[in-house]
């Protein structure tokens, strides 16, 4: 009697079988034209269109994996292993997919895959300063239903840690390039644990043993075998596994140039190829031998022709293998399901974290990640203090004579320019480093764009204020500016807004552009334009009328004006030996030199706030609509 499988909408971990029939995946590729030329509007001629060719990545691939089994997808580089996983997991970027993919007899959809599967990538994307338990706990709070208490979530996390054999490093930092932490194999298991928190029925893994030593790789695959035995369907890509690892697989799919060379039980692979006249030599790893057999050797014309002929015969032999085809047909027939029950359970997302929960968790995670990154804090404090010390030393103890009057403008302008330049580079560098996990967490729908953006912005504000305080305060007193609380705090507030405006512009450039180099050049160019139109190098009244709008959107102009108006109010200057008719006696007269005599602090503060808001909106729009794919 045929087994009937249905998926209970109340739980994700179900027995799900995957049936793939005649799967073909093709993408458009460009011939000899450079990529940028194909995007030019005037280059869409018929000749250009003819340069596009369809490249077949997967060709008529069929297989069946039952719940409780582990399938290893093997093949050389470029064979289509990762592409197959991407298509199954609905992560293929473009291209045309033909054929049938069914889960328990129901045609698979993106919603089904997102609900019942998890995808572990080849490289680990984890926050290196958090511990193993903190990493999993933050993910649990973002993924698990809100009806669960904090204690229940901790129990869930502890269970995953125990299942993956990570109990001994639960309170150890994950680590990475910059800091020492857990081992590579343990880090890979943490990545798996992140995906296991929702107890998925299907687990996709791309090269899970890549970069691991032999012992760790074996331990990793044993862990996956244990997960599969717990009614999960595990599919992984792997290059050339050792013999002891190969023996852990239930099923093997060997691909070459997107075509199937073998699919069946791992223990029967040697017998299958032996019947075709290719017995595995003694003391030879079968996976090495048969992958070499299924690879075209291009070292010479003769070897390429010979190996191509062998591969062609292997593909034909597999396609004509009646036993394999009859097994697939029998498996397809013996696992029918209730379509309505499966399809009707896909939209059951009630009870899962919404915006406010995501924001709360992301705020705590981001704040925590900054606090425990003590080297970052130390560097930022030293940088702020160094900038302040330089300013204070250059403009030390300003007098109230004619020289001191002019030097104050220099101090005020440099205060608005010096620190923002360094902060801009820091923001862009940090943003592009965050892309290494942000892109994939967004792809996994761990949280929404708006929740992430708001949490990041608000979590960083206390540190922004701290660094601006360290930057502004020493220089203010070293320069012997007015001992007036109103003057001090007004200028202090303007500096905070000015630096934050530069940070907002840098965030926009970082989110909009693909790499650090383009972002930093664009941001610094924008900052240079703002500085040139800031009113210090050229009087705003004499600025070319066609460029006055640049000055109106310059954060440096408004900050310089506000600080100057505040710093020069109620000041009187001595003439010394200067001719009285050329002497500037009051702060108001000094402001007239830069056309700031009618300046209003409240207007400058309003303009700075508007500039910040504008760049923050642009930064969010870029984050939302420009893929934050890491390019470095």
Task: Provide an overview of this structure.
- The protein is elongated and about 110 Å long.
- The chain contains 24 helices and ten strands.
- A hairpin with a 2-residue loop joins β4 (96-103) and β5 (106-107).
- The protein has 632 residues and is of the alpha/beta class.
- It has two domains: 18-30 and 62-332, P-loop containing nucleotide triphosphate hydrolases (Rossmann fold); 358-625, no CATH class.
- α15 (355-372) packs across α18, α19 crosses α20 and α19 packs parallel to α24.
- The strands form two sheets. Strands 6-7-8-3-9-10 form a six-stranded mixed beta sheet, with helices on both faces. A four-stranded antiparallel beta sheet has the order 2-1-4-5, with helices on both faces.
- It comes from Patella caerulea.
- It is a multi-pass membrane protein.
- Keywords: ATP-binding, Membrane, Nucleotide-binding, Transmembrane, Transmembrane helix, Transport.
- The chain crosses the membrane at residues 374-396, 408-429, 450-473, 485-501, 521-540, 601-626.
- Its main location: membrane.
The side-by-side strand order for the widest beta sheet comes to: 6-7-8-3-9-10
This entry's quaternary arrangement is single chain
Biggest sheet character: 6 strands, mixed
Amino-to-carboxy terminus distance:
55 Å
CATH architecture of the largest domain: 3-Layer(aba) Sandwich
The percent range for strand residues is 5-15%
Roughly what percent helix? 40-55%
Please report the number of helical segments.
Answer: 24
Shape: elongated
Which fold does the CATH topology of the largest domain refer to? Rossmann fold
Count of all domains: 2
Radius of gyration: 32 Å
Helix/strand-derived category reads alpha/beta
The CATH fourth-level homologous superfamily of the largest domain: P-loop containing nucleotide triphosphate hydrolases
What is the count of β-strands? 10
- CATH domain class name of the largest domain: Alpha Beta
